[in-house]
What does this fold into?
Amino acid sequence: MAELSRRRKYLILAICCCSLLMVSIDGTIVNVALPSIQRDLHASVSGLQWIIDAYILVLASLLMLSGSMADRIGRRRASLTGLTLFTLGSLLCSVAPGLGWLIAFRALQAVGGSMLNPVAMSIITNVFTDPRERARAIGVWGGVIGVGLSAGPVLGGALVGSIGWRSIFWLNVPVGVIAFICTVIFTPESKAPRARRIDPAGQVLIALLLAGSTYAIIESARSGWDSPLILAVSAVAVAAAAGLIWYEPRRVDPLIDLRFFRSAPFSGATAVAVFAFAGLGGFLFLNTIYLQEVRGFSALHAGLCTVPMAAMTLVFAPYSGRLVGTGRARTSLMVAGVALATGPALLLTLTADSSIWRLLIAYMIFGIGFGLVNPPITNAAVSGMPRAQAGVAASVASTSRQIGQSLGVAVTGSIVTSRLHGTVAHGFAAASHAGWWVLVGCGLGVLTVGTVTTGPWARRTAEQAVARLDPPALVGTS
It folds into this structure.
């Protein structure tokens, strides 16, 4: 690909961020609409979990396949296909006649979404070849993820409160069309120098692992862990994990190159992404139900309550990008971990009439942590990796985010449901205490893993792992 001007590079970055913003907002905008969807479509609590997790599961299952396919067939082509499917899926969601249809159309959205996040990150990695310049671009990118995910509940509350829950999906249609046109005009095509072979067995194993584990977690609250179906599904997930570990290293072109994980920063970024996004998924899920079902707030009022979180994410995400660009990713991760644990800790004794100021302070602190955590994750995932595998490397980080968010909703939802006695309005606050403890643990996980995997020892493992991968094709470390 020919060298591009600085202006053209940042225009491409803006286009990629536009696609990412659409997917990121969609990942959380639905949360605030759940009570309205429940009343309109007569959904159970587990049904509400599947509205969120069907999207996340399909997205997570296909991210690595989409990343490797984009490296193979062309990143711009993959991005255009993703925009088309995501926009179409959004339009269909807005007219879904029932719960089953809505879940199915959310899955179609996710197929398109899987082609946007890692593919756009791969485009950015190939456009910004200078390590320091790339780190700044990734900082912007990570900030957009945080802003999109945090702004979703606010925007969703405004739309649901004024127009109705179906309007949250209309928003994606004009944005998708604009992003499609801009991609055609301004984004150059790029491919990996050598086309990697498709790995259908690896893809099936990943899908079985993610779907099986999430199904078991969500449905165990209703069926029990000793249910024959839950035990069978759990066994399938364990077998799929074992199959991946055995099979992937034996392929010439594996879907997941396990050598990536010999890099402590890369492995750390993967684990931090799971912890951070599990915290986000659980935090938004519990707060949505608490604010609307326990406190009786409207969707708009509930969305406005999360403004402090969105505002802090908006402020601290770019600041984190600057820290990463100057080699201080460890500082960003450590402060993020403390904040992500402190926010839920303030809600450990939540009651039906807790002070609204206590809630707002918790949201603000959580938003600071979430704003600081994203840029270090993305930078550690792609820095130093072979440019030919940029799509795959980026998709591992993206998959980790989606797995974390899915697990956050599944685990906290199941724990709270199993402890809920009586109606949601009267028993949810007390039942949620165990869920907040889980989220405190997620924040401490970010702190611990982030600290351990960003020191001198970790950097040495990264250099050794990169040397084993593809020395002539390195993009450089930062």
Remarks:
- The first helix runs from residue 6 to 29.
